[in-house]
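re: ur question from yesterday

yeah so i grabbed the chain u mentioned. its 406 aa long if i counted rite. heres the sequnce exactly as i have it in my notes:
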Amino acid sequence: MRAAGPMFAVVAALAGCGDDRDRARELTQRHVVVDTHIDAPYRLYRETADLGAPVPDREFDYPSARLGGLDVAFMSIFTPARAADAGESRQVADELVDLVEALVHTHPGKFAIVSCTDDVERLRDAGIVALALGMENASPLEGSLEALDHFVARGIRYVSLAHSKSNRYADSSYDLNERWQGLSELGRQTVPELNRRGVMVDLSHLSDDAAWHVLELSESPVIASHSSLRHFIPGFHRNMSDRMVREVALGGGVVQINFGSGFVSREAREWTARREAATLAHFLGREVDADARRAFMAEYTADNPYPFASVDTVLDHIDRVVAIAGIDHVGLGSDFDGVGDTLPAGLKNVADFPNLVEGMLGRGYADDDIAKILGLNLMRVWRDVERFAEAQGHPPLCHQDGITLQ
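ran it thru and got these structure tokens back, copy pasting raw so excuse formatting
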């Protein structure tokens, strides 16, 4: 009888794992699931694909979204710094929105553009994946209210003021050349204009000073659309400090956790730094050919396998936001299709959200709290931003052209 005790415990534990797996799938189908950062549009811009069908080398497509329970996917309207240098940011952003609209028109029973919260539930009921739009890098706004209104009318519902380089609006966390020591005067003027139009202001990619300026200026709750916590990767300023997380929460906002291994794992971040140092040393004093550089990096990776993070690593970041800011201020901003082959084991595409929920169940999260993390927190912030704009005389614009229920 004594010998049966440990075996019974093992069997019970395995049965519990199966129960959690089934329950996780059920919860992702029952609750609204929102991902605030998917880079599918720019990947389509570079190489076309039919996202209405399974696409093995993409991290977002309709069948995978339905399997993972994803209801609202914020499509990133990302423009690289070189587009701004060439004076082409607005054109590129419009072309990316065109691609999202084309996806909707090609698959009206699968996708719809959504630009107000009231439409989300009825799209869910119809089995349609709602495609919201977030602008990553404000360069397409060109310092013009006309351009801002143009993109709001096209469906943009959050704006990250900068990306990898400082621009006319704000300093970037990646750019050592801090042109403005935070926001420029134009950036300071733009934050209240975004508030008035019901557009969420996004802290992701901003320098610390720029983020603090946004937090001081914004009268609506703010988001970090795809950021994780600096606590786990000290010195990585692209992630949020604990103090910043608390301030976002005090304003009613939400931090949407990035899944990329380099955003959640110190080991992965350090591996990337070592590979970069090895690459620089290898080509020191020589002209760098892009193909040769890629070949060297591939060889380095073959000899030094990348240390992928795990679902548990991502959950550690969620746990910490809950611990320091509360359950109402954390959500999901995966960065699918935007971080290359660095996604954690078990979180490789939008079909894998149940794996994250299974991990939450294993850590003792209640169903109601899981629902908040999956999407209710972000939906609350979005509604609050809409209500503020409505009080300023700007009711939310619903993108009816993108909504075709069949």
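noticed a couple things. Residues 6-14 have pLDDT under 50 and may be disordered. also The first helix runs from residue 4 to 30.
anyway ttyl
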